[in-house]
Structure formats: structure tokens, C-alpha cells
Amino acid sequence: MTTLHLPMTLLPLFPGLERRVDVEATTVDGAIDELDARWPGLRDRLCEPGPAIRPHIHVYINGERAELDAPLDSGARVDVIAAISGG
Amino acid sequence: MARTVLAIGTRKGCFLMESDGDRRAWSMRGPLCEGWPIYHAVFDQSDGTLYAAGASEWHGSAIWRSTDLGETWTHSSEGLAYEDGGKKLSKVSTLSAAHGRVLAGVEAPGIFQSTDRGDTWSLLTNLEGQPGSEEWDDPANQPPGHLGISGFQSDPDDADRFWAIVQGVGLFETTDSGTSWTPRNRGLRADWPRPHDEVGFCVHKVVRSRTDGNRMYQQNHVGMHRSDDAGLTWTEITDGLPTEFGFAAATHPHDRDTFFVIPLDPGHGRTMPDGKAAVWRTQDAGSSWQRIERGLPQQEAHLGVLRQGMVADTYDVPGYYFGTSTGQVFASADDGESWTEIASYLPAISSVDVAIVD
């Protein structure tokens, strides 16, 4: 099991979504699939066609920047960050 | 009692303002849509449903929907994307809701539609084969910063007929629900070289009379134009206006010859000339123009209004509304004769729409 730490900007878009979510997936892509299955449409908020992680969304596994195909080890900490943007 | 509701799209969310039929006292709700930048918020006038085109820098483009006048919202972008490896969709620029269908004009240019009230979307057309499309489909010309569909004009009597503006290219009409298109730019002026005879015009805004479907007005990058044959041909009517440039326009709901426009300086500033706010009106289809300033600021008022930033209601004595790029909303409840600032400190305003609901 891996725990995802999600950005606050995502929470109001999907009722019931919490800041931390446990998933069983073995890749980042699979983890986002799991989220999308529980909260339909969530994949589109993190990924763009390609598929690829959206430019202003960053994913880190144990502090290292990761892409969709990165493997997830059980117990890893995964941070999904809404990167600096806006103004 | 009738409720008059304004939907205001801003850089930091959607706002709703509400009044009664007198349109004197207004209340406000917002920011809505989680503060996403909203490029165009529109009502489906048949049932009061609100649609708001948003583009979050973090979470991409989506179209928000409210069926209870903004109390609750859902959002979706299911199907709202070009196929992998094709054009990039950077944002939804404009919406139109009519005949049980919602149209979304996007950049790079394409039109998506929803027939389930915004739950799901599909690509309706890229306007393939139209002159100019080779440029806007070129991967080197993909957004951000490039062209898109910037406006629609629907036909209240014919669901299959509507017009779409391609930024910097021109106006196109379909009569078969987007299967085929015809450029409608004859008579327009362009002060630059054009590779095609029928396109290459910078159409900012097209509005159509409610009382005569053949009467259209167009604010162009270089001039105001009128059509008396539903866009087949255009005649310039700029004479008498302070500049030839602007974005916003609104037609009188009951008089085909009366039309409002907000001329702007054409340079980088794109604000009202001389820092004096004014709306300009013609009551003779563009033969003459009157400057209306009553109630509008006349000192250091460097206000801009974008293409979806002005709208008319349909009361017997019509009201008009415009929102500025500096966050003010001005309203007239007396057929445009005088204006009142009804909001002062909103984020930069992209769009204003109005609905009268029971």
C-alpha cells in the first residue's frame, strides 16, 4: 500500500476526497487510475493527453521527481504538488 | 417576481449578481467555481442552467455547470481533448447553450459539443479544409498564445445553423450542424496581407438582432460593420466612432437598428479613449453614433472591455451590462441612457451574461 498526499486545490472538486489517500497500485499511472475509479474525472485534473502529468502538477516519490511510469514500492511516500503558478 | 441574474466570468472565478425587474439594487455571490479563471459563463436561456468555461493552471480546462443558479456546481472535461499527438487544447474560450446542446469553442481552433448538459463532450468539428485551417492545424502554431474559436452566434429558429469566429481568420457559418462551413467575410476590411481571398480578417465580435435575423453587427479589429443578409455581405459603419477598434457589442432586443459598442484605443492599452468611459449607440443601423457617458467615470478611467464583456437583457425597457478588465460592472436599466457602477472590485472580468428567471 502507498499513501498519496494530494494538493488542496483538488479536494473541493471531488466530494469525499481527502488530502491523503491509500492506494494499492504499483505505478504512478496505476495510482491515478485508482483515484479516477473512486472519483471519476480526477485523472483529467492531474494528467493531459499523451498521457502525461500536467505541466504544473509535480509528483515526487520519497522526494524524487517521478513520471507516470515510475514504480511505487509499498510504504513509499508520494507527494502530488500543485507547482508554483498563478498570481 | 422576475429575477435578473448576471453571470460574470473573471480571472478568479465566477460571480453572480442578482436584482429584480427594476434592476436598481443588486446582491452578489462568489467567487464560485473554486476561483478558477473563467473565460466565459453563459446561461442556457431555455432552463436557466449555467455553464462556465474554466482553465486552471494546475488542473487544466473544464466546463462547470450549475442547475440551481450557482448554489451547487459540478464540472467535467470528459472528452474535452484532442486525440493524443494532435492539436493541443489550452483552454475553452467561449460557450453557447441552445437547442439542447452546449458548444465549446477552444484553442487551438476546434468546436466540442455536449448533448447531455455538459456531462460529456465530443469533438464536433475542426472546420477541416476551410481556408486558413492549414495554419491553425500546424503543430508549430499550437497554443498557448495562438488562435482559437472566440465566439458563437446561434440561430434561435434553426438548431443546425450557427456561426463561429476563428480568431484572426474570420467568421464561418454552418447550416448542417458543423458538417460543412462557409466563410462569411465579404465586404470586411483588413489592413494587412492575406493569403486567402475569403479569410484573414480579425473578427472580434458578432451579434445578431433578435427582431430581424438578417441584421448582424460586427466589431472588427479594423472597424464596425453591419450585415443586412445574415452575414453574406458586410458594410463598414465605423464613421462617427472615436476609434475603429473594440471588442464588446450588444444589440437592442426590440429594435434592429439600435446597437451598442464600446470603442477602445487600438494600441497596447486597449482601454477607452482619453481615460473617459463611454458607450456608443446607433439608432439608425450605423449611419450616426451617439456617445453616452451619463453615470460613467470621466476622469482617469482606463477601462477595457473584452469581447464577451457586454450583454443586453430583454425587458420592455432593456437593460445593458458590461464588465471591465479592472473589475467594475456597469449597468443601465433605462435602455442605455444612463449607467450605474454595480460592482467595483471584482477580479479582471472576461464575460457577462444575463438571464431573467421566475
The biggest beta sheet of chain B reads: 4 strands, antiparallel
Number of helices of chain A: 2
Number of strands of chain B: 28
What is the helical fraction of chain A, as a range of percent? 10-25%
Please state the overall shape of chain B, judged from the principal axes of the Cα atoms: globular
The main sheet of chain B orders its strands as 3-2-1-28
Q: Estimate percent helicity of chain B.
A: under 10%
Number of helices of chain B: 1
The termini of chain A sit apart by: 36 Å
The radius of gyration over CA of chain A amounts to 12 Å
Q: How many E-type strands of chain A?
A: 7
CATH architecture term of the domain at 36-200 in chain B = 7 Propeller
Strand content of chain B: 35-45%
CATH superfamily of the domain at 36-200 in chain B: YVTN repeat-like/Quinoprotein amine dehydrogenase
Task: Return the structural class of chain A.
Answer: alpha+beta
Short description:
The complex is a heterodimer of chains A (87) and B (358). By secondary structure, chain A is an alpha+beta fold. Chain A has helices at residues 28-38, 42-46, and strands at residues 2-5, 20-23, 47-48, 52-53, 57-61, 64-66, 77-82.
Structure, explained:
- The complex is a heterodimer of chains A (87) and B (358).
- Chain A is of the alpha+beta class.
- In chain A, 18% of the residues lie in helices and 30% in strands.
- Chain A has a single domain (2-82), classed as Ubiquitin-like (UB roll) (Roll).
- Chain A is built from two helices and seven strands.
- Chain A starts with a strand and ends in a 5-residue tail after the last strand.
- The mean pLDDT of chain A is 94.
- Chain B is an all-beta fold and 358 residues long.
- Chain B has a domain at 36-200: Methylamine Dehydrogenase, Chain H (7 Propeller), CATH 2.130.10.10.
- Chain B starts with a strand and ends with a strand.
- At the A-B interface, helix 2 of A face loops of B.
